[in-house]
Amino acid sequence: MRQRVLAKMAAMVVFGAGAAFGMGAAMVAAQEQVDPPPALSKQEQAFAEKLSGAALVGRFTVDGKEADAKEERYEISKVSKLRDDYWVFNSRVKYGTTDVTVPITLKVLWAGDTPMISMTDLAIPGLGTFTCRVFFHEDRYAGTWQHGEVGGHMFGRIEAAKP
Hints:
The protein is of the alpha+beta class. 19% of the residues lie in helices and 52% in strands. It has an 8-stranded antiparallel beta barrel with strand order 1-2-3-4-5-6-7-8. Strand 4 and strand 5 form a beta hairpin. The longest helix is centred in the N-terminal third of the chain and has 11 residues. It is globular and about 45 Å long. The N terminus is likely disordered.
C-alpha cells in the first residue's frame, strides 16, 4: 500500500522520468541551461515561490477504503517553469531504501488563479504508470490519483519544508 502512495507522488511531484516530453532528467537539465527561463506572470511567480522549499503534508485515501486515510508527506526543493504549460518539480523520492531528489516535468494548467497538475498515464520506470489531478489553493492541496486499478484522493497542507 505505501508503495502505491509513494509511487503516485513520485509520478505527481516527485516528484525522474523526464516525463512530459519523454526526456531524461539530464536532457531537462541541459534544456534549462540552453534556454533562458521564461518570464513568469505574478500568479506563476507566486506558485513557484509557494512550492519551492515546501512540503505537502496530509492524507490520502484508497477508493472503497476512505475511512482508512493514511498520512503522507512529500518534499519539493524547487519548482520552475520550463516552457508553455510544463514545469520542472525537483522533489524528493523516499521509497524503501531509495532516498533521492529528482526532477520531473509536469503539466500545470490554470483554472483562473488556481494551478493544477494534470498528468495522464505517465510511466515512471520501476514504479508503474500514473494519472493524477492535483490543485493548489492558498496553503492547501487536494486531488485524485490513479495507479492501475487502484486510485483515491489526496489532500493536505502546503508547509515550509523543515531542514
